[in-house]
Write a structure and sequence with these properties.
Elements: E1 2-8, E2 14-20, H1 22-27, H2 34-43, H3 48-53, E3 63-68, E4 84-86, E5 91-93, E6 102-103, E7 117-118, E8 131-136, E9 139-144, E10 146-150, E11 155-159, E12 170-173, E13 178-181
Antiparallel strand pairs: 1-2, 1-3, 4-5, 6-7, 8-9, 10-11, 11-12, 12-13
Length: 183
């Protein structure tokens, strides 16, 4: 089965994905062809639920179709509604989560090669920066930092688990590559 994404022409936002038989794709230009995209555009009607959300079929935005891969083997990721299609890169991406984040070139950390965007300073470089050890009932237990991106400050803020004896607020310091108490 072949998958195609319907994309708004005005902002390249993915509206939905549909499944088309491989036989139909092959009979209409083949994989990744503009002929197959045109075939799908003519075959698939405007989505009635989306038309209602847009205030009627007359307000349905102009769209185009692109073939996509459920496995992500071409055009980046498998798109879901709200994702964006970047025609210059010929790939689907998640929207930028924060204005300061930059495109992830996938080379800064293998821990984050699945994501399209990254903070301007880069990602955490190893698992030790994502977790901490705390003694619980005489045993060392590994916990995951509760972390959030603070766009105003341009840094990660973090806290240890609820119930921890340490209830300080932390920030991630990129000069020491460690979590430090936020003064």
């Amino acid at each position: 089965m072949a998958h195609f994404a319907e994309i708004r022409s005005d902002n390249n936002e993915v509206l939905r994905t549909v499944v088309i038989s491989n036989d139909d794709v092959n009979a209409n230009g083949g994989e990744l062809s503009t002929e197959a995209e045109t075939f799908v555009a003519n075959l698939i009607p405007k989505d009635p639920i989306l038309a209602t959300e847009f205030g009627g079929e007359q307000n349905y935005p102009e769209t185009y179709w692109k073939q996509c891969s459920f496995s992500g083997s071409f055009r980046g990721r498998f798109p879901i509604p709200g994702d964006l299609y970047n025609s210059s890169e010929d790939k689907f991406k998640k929207p930028r989560p924060y204005p300061s984040w930059v495109a992830n070139d996938k080379s800064t950390s293998p821990l984050y090669d699945y994501t399209d965007w990254m903070p301007p300073q880069g990602w955490f470089s190893n698992q030790n920066q994502l977790t901490y050890i705390e003694n619980v009932d005489g045993e060392d237990v590994e916990f995951i930092w509760s972390k959030n991106w603070n766009e105003e400050r341009g840094l990660w803020t973090g806290n240890k688990r609820e119930g921890s004896a340490d209830q300080n607020n932390y920030i991630f310091d990129y000069t020491t590559m460690s979590w430090v108490i936020d003064n």
